[in-house]
Design goal:
- The complex is a heterodimer of chains A (897) and B (438).
- Chain A is built from 44 helices and twelve strands.
- In chain A, helix 7 packs antiparallel against helix 8 (148-158), helix 11 (198-204) runs antiparallel to helix 12 (210-223) and helix 14 (241-260) runs parallel beside helix 16.
- In chain A, the strands form two sheets. In chain A, strands 2, 3, 5, 7, 8, 10 and 12 form a seven-stranded antiparallel β-sheet that branches. Chain A has a four-stranded antiparallel β-sheet with strand order 4-11-6-9.
- Helices cover 54% and strands 8% of the residues of chain A.
- By secondary structure, chain A is an alpha+beta fold.
- Chain B folds into two domains: 3-178, 3-Layer(aba) Sandwich (Rossmann fold), CATH 3.40.50.720; 184-360 and 387-426, Dihydrodipicolinate Reductase, domain 2.
- In chain B, strands 14-13-12-7-11-10-9-15-16 form a nine-stranded mixed β-sheet.
- Chain B contains 16 helices and 16 strands.
- In chain B, a hairpin with a 5-residue loop joins strand 13 (334-339) and strand 14 (345-348).
- The radius of gyration of chain B is 21 Å and the shape is globular.
- With 438 residues, chain B is α/β, with parallel strands linked by helices.
- The chains are: A alpha+beta (897), B alpha/beta (438).
- Chains A and B meet through helix 1, strand 1, helix 2, helix 4 and helix 6 of A and helix 2, helix 3, helix 4, helix 8 and strand 8 of B.
- Strand 1 (19-20) of chain A pairs antiparallel with strand 8 of chain B, so a sheet runs across the interface.
Chain lengths: 897, 438
């Protein structure tokens, strides 16, 4: 079962035992366009073809077949297969394309209405006849109207029938039934707007049965013919209040229909009668809205009268209607009413004036930003976002200055969202420079939200403010807006803070600028120069904290120098900077710190920093990573620290990690973490480093650990036993995409991994054995996911001699293969992974042969498999495969096969 | 589980620019207006709360219920469902929340609608009931929050629009992504022209299920199956079909009609076509369930295509995994995409994302959408997903459904709301079962 069905966020029903597409076999018939659907078919892969053909091939629609289908369909009941029903539906599609087939189809459907057919079969036929039935089917459908249990499906067929003969059938049947069966006929007549039904519906409107009454009166409202309207008028005055209520509601529908048909006198008459009555409020409100829509002046006068009247409950409708008035003077007229309205009503009117958005409306809204009631002021501020431009900035600034800080956010938001681009920016900057101080923090926040880079000079000035709120806001805004060129100025402000409370914001802003500066030399130069200009310890601590954001050699050297400072607080800041270092360059220094530390907290900090960097390290040689991990393990003084290092080992992309952690599996105190790391590594490395993986997995079998983990280990071993002679050790890189290009088009797009040893490509070890039923398949979909993208894979084949061979590839979807930089296979296609589907005769050089693959993804599944055999396809022994680049010292490499 | 633990943070508590823009008029806190002003069905609710009843209290309802209960100016007073167990579970949850046992358990939703103190209803039935229950509620003078899709036929949807206008009903469709900041951001960027002129909208929702054959079974105790069927013409009780109602024509119309409306709604909103729609529809690449194994009627996967009169094209893909849902607007200067699973927005050029703020609330929290309804009820103004908007979005799904069923590309007149094909026009409506017709 697909997890999404039970996803609590899902808005879909819960299915107890559904068979989803995941349970369907994967079609191998493919269509040509790239957006062809290939559902996530994953199981099982045997016996696909019978199912597949049934699922995808068109159903026969010949006359003989149709008759056979109808004969079979007549017996249909839930639980039986629906092949005949689907064949008939295909015949419907064929008949839509070819109208000459309709008579035969309708004849077949009529046959399906026969009494000997099951109810479900007849129901199915009625559904088809609802869209296809002609007069020919009416006699058979008429028979269904005779039996209460089939009246519903008969009405299904008749409800959309184009002929008035259908009305005749329904009217004939009306008197023969009672209860809900009769109601079914009544509502169908109402839906068909059958005017001739009015005479019969009259008495039924006063029937003793509630459903019948409701249906009959409702049908009269839909029919809305003169007879029906007259009858409804009478019913509205019926002594039975329930009948009168139903008639009033039906009259709403009838009046609306009359209005749409431009019979305004009729609808006005109905509306005015209902408005003056003691109908429920919602009815009176609805008729008021109906009248406002119909009034010749657009409802202006009526709205005004409602506002000046006493019926408070109707005022929201009138106030909303103001926005629809076409008269240009309406804004001025209604703005004049503002002072007479309650605050609540003013808010509603401001909303409507904003929707009108003319000069008078804007003027009125601006005035309301100074209203005594806060709710009204806020509504006016919100409205200005909709209608305002640079001219309303002063009003908003005044409102900002007048509001308590806790109430300023909506005004900041309004300033941030105000239309008018650079003009608004300039007005805000002017207010920053010359406006009231109380408004400054809010104005600064607004410039940040607007992304107003022209405000940076003003903000740099304000960063030097002694007012904490102003300085903090200015630094926050500078962090968002300033370019790296402002870094020296920013650091100078950091060192010369007028408001000490702003230090955190100042450091954060400087950090953001450093992150934005792509040139590490410039980053470190700026910070190191600033350091050289100050002796103030607090300032120096701030600058040291910025050095990790520089991340280059000069910055690291500076940290190391600060580590020798006489000032303990600076030494501590430097150690923290080392621990936060962004790349592996600090590993050695951190481990040295851990070795030499006299304080335990410093030792732990250094060790943690080193392990963090080692775990994510891609910029150290493998030999160095191994060495430093060994060093870290020896530095671990207790079980917690050993666990820390083991967790770091779990991130390594080489088999040595398994060898390093193996001894710790015997230590009960750290076993849980060691086992977890072993399983993580085994899943990742089983293809590339099978031998150390097998050793660890076998060891797990002998340990007293959770049965579930043991089973996982055994399962993985079992899967590895089926790897055969497929190549499972690969480095992969991806995914690579290009906007607007399909998987098919990406085949010819050259991405960096197509260059030998591309320096910009990050490779990772490809996990193997993820698909239990085909362990030799590498599953790119679960690693990279998505549609219309590309991945690359590479490995090295060590051959003791030059020799001919056969390369066999299976791929989903397209594949391009380079052997020692020569393309040997190229197939831009879509389809499932079929071993050997693509193959080539190759010649292996003596020594290392680089095999590089480009695998494109169209949609759904994505993966590949590969093996190298003798030219005749027989197994080829004596080859070694390694995912370790030949340039890496061999003693780290662990050949895999 | 205690209901209090289900209650999530009120969306109003984290106002930011996007939320601000999207809730113009909502200001920062609920506007308390005397009930007499609001016309809350003639009754003044205690503490000026808007009183709700729930119709259909299954999984979806229970997921979203905490979003309702989180609002102090809303009171949930009654529940109705065709299943007694679901009524009991929802009543218990609501009573726990309020610390009393007042929630009314009403097997027939018409009794709920008859309560004069109830101002509005939350409808989360199966799709077959959405339009019918909404029209019953409108006729009873209730305002409405209804889960999507709002209807299962185009005519029914238009009738709902008309009826809401006739009765002055404030109606919010549960296409809550309009109230979600990630989608609001994408819309604003498109409307600001940041990706140039939009020419294509790509949407993807997941592969549909197939329901295996099953014979009729006895109706379980506590079920009112007749009420469950409602406007659907009678069929025998088959558990797999009842639970898998989404995959049959007259109860659900399949995944692209159900979930697809979220995305077509977004497309309409962003393109500014809320009162109209495409002029051409086509369903292609359809993969149907194997009729030997499965009784479900709707396609497992497919591509649903539409074209607007100005040439803009939409592609709704029903494919892939649940987590792969997205909507992408492609313009002549770039693109912007919202990943529906994660709410992550991506774009090209990437500078578009500079304007992005943080702290967004996921679409999974419908609080802001409900807030919009509450404010609109108080102001008697249309909601973000009012009936016209929702109907137009749903029309796209319905029209492609009809195209799929007929195997034909269809032209559409969005003014007259008619196809260029008489057979297709007869599929605009399906006669409902009495007495479930307003």
């Amino acid at each position: 079962m697909k997890s999404e069905i039970r996803n609590p966020k899902s808005e879909m029903p819960e299915l107890p035992q559904p068979r989803t597409a995941d349970h369907l076999p994967r079609p191998t018939l493919r269509r040509s366009t790239f957006d062809v659907q290939r559902s996530a078919f994953r199981v099982p892969r045997s016996a696909f073809f019978p199912f597949l053909l049934a699922a995808l091939l068109p159903f026969p629609a010949l006359a003989a077949d149709l008759n056979q289908a109808v004969t079979a369909a007549m017996r249909y009941e839930s639980g039986l297969d629906v092949v005949p029903l689907r064949q008939i539906e295909q015949a419907v599609r064929d008949a839509v394309a070819n109208p000459s087939q309709r008579p035969a189809l309708e004849t077949a459907l009529i046959r399906l209405l026969a009494p000997e057919a099951t109810f479900e079969a007849r129901r199915f036929a009625c559904m088809q006849l609802a869209s296809l039935g002609s007069d020919a089917c009416l006699p058979a459908v008429s028979d269904l109207l005779k039996q209460p249990e089939t009246v519903g499906i008969a009405c299904l067929a008749l409800g959309t029938h184009p002929s008035t003969k259908a009305d005749d059938l329904l009217l004939q049947a009306l008197t023969a039934h009672h209860g809900d069966t009769r109601v079914q006929i009544i509502v169908t007549l109402g839906d068909r707007r059958g005017a001739q039904a009015v005479t019969l519906l009259g008495p039924l409107a006063r029937d003793t049965d509630r459903n019948t009454r409701e249906a009959a009166i409702g049908a009269l409202g839909k029919i809305a013919s003169p007879d029906a309207l007259a009858l409804l008028a009478t019913l509205r005055r019926d002594a039975n209040t329930e009948i009168a209520r139903l008639a009033a509601l039906a009259s709403l529908a009838a009046a609306d229909t009359a209005a749409l048909n431009h019979a305004n006198n009729i609808s006005t008459s109905i509306y005015e009668e209902l408005l003056a009555s003691d109908q429920p409020l919602y009815v009176r409100r609805a008729v008021l809205e109906g009248l406002l829509r119909m009034d010749a002046d657009g409802g202006a006068l009526r709205s005004l009268n409602v506002l000046r009247g006493t019926e408070t409950a109707l005022k929201p409708s009138a106030l909303f209607h103001v926005r629809t008035l076409r008269d240009e003077s309406a804004s001025k007229v209604f703005a004049g009413e503002l002072s007479r309205l309650s605050p609540t009503e003013r808010v509603l009117l401001i909303d409507s004036l904003a929707a009108r958005n003319d000069a008078a409306a804007r003027e009125a809204i601006v005035a309301q930003t100074q209203a005594p009631d806060e709710t009204v002021r806020q509504a006016a501020v919100v409205a200005l976002v909709q209608v305002g431009d640079a001219t309303v900035v002063p009003a908003l600034v005044a409102a900002l200055a007048k509001s308590a800080p806790s109430r300023q956010q909506p005004i900041e938001m309004a300033l941030a969202s105000l239309k008018g681009g650079a003009q608004v920016d300039q007005e805000i900057i002017r207010a920053l420079e010359t406006g009231p101080a109380a408004a400054r923090p809010g104005l600064i926040n607004a410039t940040a939200r607007r992304g107003s880079k022209s405000a940076v000079p003003a903000l740099l000035t304000l960063a030097a403010s002694a007012d904490a709120a102003t300085a903090r806001a200015a630094f926050r805004a500078l962090g968002q807006l300033a370019e790296p060129a402002s870094l020296p100025a920013m650091l100078e402000h950091l060192l010369n803070l007028k408001s000490p409370a702003a230090r955190g914001e100042a450091e954060a802003a400087a950090m953001k600028l450093l992150e934005r500066e792509p040139d590490s030399n410039r980053r470190s130069l700026a910070v190191i120069q600033a350091l050289s200009q100050t002796k103030d310890a607090e300032g120096r601590r701030s600058l040291i904290a910025l050095l990790p954001a520089c991340g280059d050699e000069p910055a690291l050297a500076t940290v190391k120098v600060e580590r020798t400072s006489a000032d303990a607080s600076l030494r501590e800041a430097a150690l923290r900077a080392l621990a936060d270092w962004p790349n592996a360059a600090a590993v050695d220094a951190l481990l040295t710190e851990a070795e030499q530390a006299t304080e335990n907290n410093e030792r732990v900090l250094a060790l943690r920093g080193a392990v963090r960097l080692l775990r994510q390290s891609i910029d150290l040689p493998l030999v160095a990573i191994k060495f430093q991990f060994q060093r870290a393990l020896t530095l671990a003084r207790n079980d917690d620290e050993t666990k820390l290092v083991l967790s770091g080992l779990a991130g390594v992309q080489h088999g040595f990690a398994l060898q390093l952690l193996a001894p710790h599996l015997d230590n009960p105190a750290v076993r849980a973490e060691a086992v977890q790391a072993a399983m993580t590594l085994s899943r990742r490395l089983c293809g590339a480093f099978p031998e150390p993986t097998k050793a660890v997995l076998q060891k797990l079998a002998s340990l007293p650990i959770e049965p579930a983990v043991k089973k996982s280990a055994a399962d993985l071993l079992e899967v590895m036993g089926h790897f055969g002679d497929f190549i499972l050790g690969w480095q992969v890189a991806g995914p690579f995409v290009e906007t607007g290009k399909s998987g098919e088009a990406l085949f010819d797009v050259v991405f960096p991994p197509e260059q030998k040893d591309s320096p910009t490509t990050t490779w990772q070890i490809m996990p193997a054995g993820r698909l239990m039923d085909r362990p030799w398949q590498l599953d790119l979909a679960s690693l990279f996911g998505g549609d219309h993208r590309v991945a690359y894979a590479r490995t090295w084949i060590l051959s003791e001699t030059a020799q001919p061979a056969r390369l066999e590839i299976g791929c989903d979807d397209g594949i391009k293969v380079w052997l020692n930089e020569q393309v040997v296979i190229s197939a831009n296609r879509s389809g499932d992974v079929v071993p050997g589907a693509e193959h080539a005769a190759i010649t292996l050089n003596e020594g290392y042969n680089e095999l590089r693959l480009k695998i494109t993804q169209w949609t759904a599944g994505w993966g590949f498999c590969a093996r190298i055999a003798k030219p005749d396809g027989a197994p080829l022994s004596g080859l070694n495969v390694t995912t370790v680049h030949p340039a890496v010292p061999r003693y780290l490499g662990s050949p895999a096969r | 589980m205690q209901m209090t633990s289900l209650i999530k943070r009120s969306p109003g508590s984290a106002l930011n620019r996007r939320g601000f823009l999207s809730t113009l008029g909502a200001i920062t806190s609920p506007l308390i207006i005397p009930g007499s002003v609001l016309g809350l069905n003639g009754a003044v609710a205690p503490s000026n709360r808007i009183v709700f009843g729930g119709i259909g209290m299954g999984n979806r309802a229970m997921h979203i219920l905490p979003n309702f209960l989180a609002f102090p100016d809303l009171h949930f007073a009654a529940v109705s469902d065709a299943r007694a167990d679901r009524r009991q579970i929802s009543k218990t949850a609501i009573d726990q929340h309020y610390g009393n046992s007042d929630c009314d358990d009403l097997p027939d939703f018409r009794d709920l609608l008859a309560r004069k103190d109830i101002d509005a209803v939350f409808i989360a039935t199966g799709n077959r009931w959405h339009a019918t229950a909404s029209m019953f509620a409108a006729k009873a003078g209730k305002d409405i929050y209804c889960e999507k899709p709002i209807s299962l036929t185009i005519r029914e949807g238009r009738e709902l629009v008309t009826m809401a206008r006739q009765h002055g009903t404030i109606y919010q469709a549960g296409t809550q992504r309009r109230s979600t900041q990630s989608y609001q951001f994408a819309r604003e960027m498109v409307r600001q022209g940041r990706i140039g002129k939009v020419h294509t909208v790509d949407m993807q929702m997941w592969t549909g299920a197939a329901i295996p054959h099953e014979s009729p079974k006895p109706i379980p105790d506590g079920w009112n199956y007749d009420m469950w069927l409602g406007p659907v013409q009678w069929r025998p009780f088959v558990p797999a079909r009842v639970n898998g109602w989404a995959y049959f024509w007259d109860t659900g119309e399949g995944m692209h009609t159900d979930m697809g409306t979220h995305y077509t709604d977004q497309m309409q909103w962003v393109l500014g076509t809320d009162d109209t729609g495409p002029v051409e529809f086509e369903a292609t690449d359809l993969v149907w369930p194997d009729p030997k194994q499965f009784m479900s009627e709707t396609a497992i996967s497919g591509t649903f295509k539409f074209r607007y009169a100005n040439g803009v094209r939409g592609y709704l893909y029903q494919r892939g995994a649940f987590a792969d849902r997205y909507i992408r607007y492609v313009g002549d200067e770039g693109w912007i995409q919202v990943d529906d699973e994660t709410d992550i927005v991506t774009a090209e050029p990437k500078s578009i994302l500079d304007a992005k703020t943080t702290g967004w609330v996921s679409w999974a929290n419908a609080g802001a959408h409900i807030r919009n309804l509450l404010d609109c009820i108080r102001r008697r103004r249309p909601t973000l997903c009012n009936p016209e908007v929702a109907h137009r979005a749903q029309t796209i799904c319905e029209a492609t459904t009809i195209s799929a069923r007929l195997g034909k590309k269809l032209s559409w007149d969005p003014v007259k709301e008619l196809f260029n094909d008489e057979t297709a026009n007869r599929m605009l409506y399906r006669q409902p079962r009495a007495p479930w017709r307003v």
